[in-house]
Write a structure and sequence with these properties.
The chain has one domain (4-73). The chain is built from two helices and no strands. The protein has helices at 9-34, 48-74. α1 crosses α2. The protein is elongated, with a radius of gyration of 20 Å.
């Protein structure tokens, strides 16, 4: 079985981006079901669609940060096997 750092970078990126996208969709639905987008539009005079877009991007970035932090904290297992072509080092 491959360790986390042996997997392709695209797969690790999808571990961050896809759950964040799904969480952003759910957060946007719940948040804007409670609050009207025009209530946040006092000074900038943006359309509803623009406020929805900014809200979605903000929720997506928040979800991506959460997923990225989880991926970072997962780290390597304490006794990770060396990659192909590398020698195992004793601690």
């Amino acid at each position: 079985m491959q360790s986390m750092f042996e997997r392709p970078a695209v797969q690790r990126a999808m571990w961050v981006v896809w759950p964040a996208f799904l969480a952003a969709m759910a957060a946007e639905i719940v948040f804007f079901a409670i609050f009207d987008p025009l209530d946040f539009n006092i000074r900038l005079q943006l359309s509803r669609e623009a406020v929805y877009t900014f809200g979605f991007v903000a929720f997506w970035l928040l979800g991506a940060l959460s997923s990225l932090l989880t991926l970072f904290l997962q780290g390597l297992p304490p006794h990770a096997e060396p990659r192909a072509g590398e020698q195992a080092t004793e601690p």
